[in-house]
Design a protein that fits this description.
Blueprint lengths: L4 E3 L10 H10 L5 E6 L11 H10 L5 E6 L4 H10 L3 E4 L7 H10 L3 E6 L17 E5 L14 H15 L4 E5 L7 H7 L3 E3 L2 H4 L4 H17 L2
Parallel strand pairs: 1-8, 2-3, 3-4, 4-5, 5-6, 6-7, 7-8
Helix pairs in contact: 2-3, 6-8
Amino acid sequence: MSPFLIAPSILAADFARLGEDTDRVIKAGADMIHFDVMDHHYVPNLTFGSMVCKALREYGITAPIDTHLMTTPVDDLIINFAKAGSTYISIHPEATHHVDRSLELIHSCGCRAGIVLNPATPVEWLTYTIDKVDMILVMSVNPGFGGQKLIPSTFAKIKAIREIIDSSGRDIRLEVDGGITEDNIGSLAKAGADTFVSGSAVFHSKDCVATINKMRMEIDKAIKSL
C-alpha cells in the first residue's frame, strides 16, 4: 500500500449516478473511497446506510472502502457495513458506551478498526486504544457537514498523534478529514498525516485527474522539504 493515500468522500459525489461517479475518481487515481455515515442524531445531518456500500460493491467498485460512522449507537452498523463490504470502519469514542468492545467487534467482523477524534476530543483517548486501532482519523472540521474550512489547530494535533504512533511501533494510518485541498494537503503531510479525505476538492473538480496529481505533487514536495 502506498505511504500516502487519497480517499475522496462520496458525500460530494453525484448521487443520481453514484456508481459511475465513484468509478470516475478511482480511475483518476484515488486510493480509497470514504463513506461519511451520518445519523441525524450524533451529528445534525443524515446521509446513507450500508445498502449504499453494498450497491457500490455490486456495481463493481473494488477499491478499499473507508467507512466513518458518525452515529450512535455504532455496534449494529459495524456489523451491517462489514457485511456490505467495508474495509476500514472508524468510530467516535463518544458514540459508544464501550470503545474497546466496539473496536474488537470491528476486527471480529474482518475489518480494520479506526478511532475518530473530533476537534475538541483529546488525544488521551489513544492511551488505552492504540493497541486496538489500524487507523486514527483526525477531524479537521466539526463533523456533520461537508464543505467546511479546516481548523488550524489540526496541525498541532496531527504532530502529537504522529509521535504517539511512531512511539507505539505499530502500523497505524493517520487520516485527516475536513477542508482538505491542494493548498493545504502538503502541510498536513508534513505534520504527519498519511491518508487524506477530500470530498468537494476531488468530486467537484473539473479535472479530477489533475487535482489528484497536484495533491500528490504537493505531498511529495512537502515530504522532501523535511
